[in-house]
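Example 352.
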Amino acid sequence: MALRFGNVSSTLDLAARGKRTGFFGIAHSDNRLAFSTIQSPLAVISNGDGPTVLVCGGNHGDEYEGQIIARRLYETLSPDALSGRLILAPALNMPAVQDANRVSPLDGGNLNRSFLGAGFMGPTQDIAGFIATHLIPKADLAVDIHSGGRQTNYVDTAYFCLSADVVQNQQTHELAQVMGLPYTMVVPAGDASGDFDSAAHAAGCAMISCELGGEGKVTRLALERGWHAVLRLLAHQGVLTPAAKDRLGIAPAPETTFLDLGDDVVYLTAQSYGMIEPLVGLGDEVAVGQPVALLRDMYNMDLPPQVFTSPRTGVVSIQKTSPMVTPGDHICVLCPMLSTAQLATQMAKAAP
Ligand SMILES: [Zn+2]
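Predicted structure in complex with zinc ion:
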């Protein structure tokens, strides 16, 4: 029986054992797509009784690491490597992927702001509804892999989205440690409405997302960090057999540094037009008062550059790709590091 939500449907059998691919199709009719369906690959590898893990990429169309990792999992794993099920969706928002852009060219929809979706309210809402209705509820763990896209560059970081559920927060905390990416950004509860994380949390599904580099390109380091982080998640979840774990050579998780993306985060934001000269690099630790960037007027060379300084200590966690800015553009984001005690306080605040 076909899975359907709005104008999105799939005939791929996600229940039967074995390994197969299909797609979910997005029926959309406009001048270019009057007589076709946009196909987004969907795959399943299943064997024995065990948990289901859903691994997704391409939520935003100009982020590539997740698209590669989900496809590489399909190429690498056979059913006998699993005790459970792996559902792979490498290109969640295929119209955006085809366009190599963050959001859908069909309706301007940002998939990661569109959950839980609404049927027949445009392709992006339909895709969100399909994922929330037919994929997330089948999963014990969902993994959504992002990167900075063309506009931004991130440190390689897990995204720990807090919820109002104490058990869920403990679970996500553990998953972030299992991933072992260099950083884990801690996002306050309610800050991520409409995203995949909150949709999974609402469904009672364990969830972790991440950001791997960006600037619309793929780096070997970010890709391999993401790959090993996902393998560790699969092993931790118990979906890989012991033999498969040995064969894949899964290394222990490096320690992750928790960063505050909540009350104490600093966005350095341009208030005028101009060109940025960065004075620090991604991942640098900056001190209070340290110059972080210069903003120069494009036309008047007599105007001294505006100096942006850091109002507090923190890690340069996100940087804008292009040096050209207009008022309101964030130049970079400085995230304070969280101690174990500070993280515990944040978790207690989210789920008292
Ligand atoms: Zn993204």
